[in-house]
Fold this sequence. Notes:
Elements: E1 9-14, H1 21-34, E2 39-43, H2 50-55, E3 63-67, H3 72-85, E4 90-94, H4 100-104, H5 108-119, E5 124-129, E6 140-152, E7 159-171, E8 178-183
Parallel strand pairs: 1-5, 1-6, 2-3, 2-4, 4-5
Antiparallel strand pairs: 6-7, 7-8
Helix pairs in contact: 3-5
Amino acid sequence: MTPAHPPGSIVEITGPCSSGRTAMLYSILASATARGESCAIVDCTNAFDPASAAAAGADLERLLWVQAGGRLDHALKAADLILHGGGFGVVALDLCGIAPNQLLRIPLSYWHRFRLAVEKTPATLVVTGARPIAKSCAALQLEAKRKRALWTGRAPFCLLAGAEFEVASRKPGRIEPSVLRAAV
């Protein structure tokens, strides 16, 4: 993960569709499973792609995948059970694709409960979504933006080779954003 995140914290990765937030999540899962950690992903909208995660380097044998079928309440309860059960280095709560009005209805008490559940553990809760929602409970908020597409070949036979994304820390504030590259 990033050196700036302390274990036992909530990290939010936000940005619009195709901003690189999922690529960053897969990279985090790859790093954690490479260190031998077990990870969990709570997939609220059943959008997780195991093939893409494996291509990014995630060890699927060390990954628990929970599908919530589009039910936000089920996703939150599953994340809560996993965090309180322990044993995971990274627990990802993927809220991408959930309507903003639904996300605004999540009580702040959930985020405080999640923060207390990870606070004294080596685990990190990674929350992905279109905009920040964990408020003061997040120790680190990263905002992702698509910078540019990387192409190979010559027109009209160009192939997408990857993309560059810009990631800026919104909490705690950082001056310089980082550029990440993801290959196809």
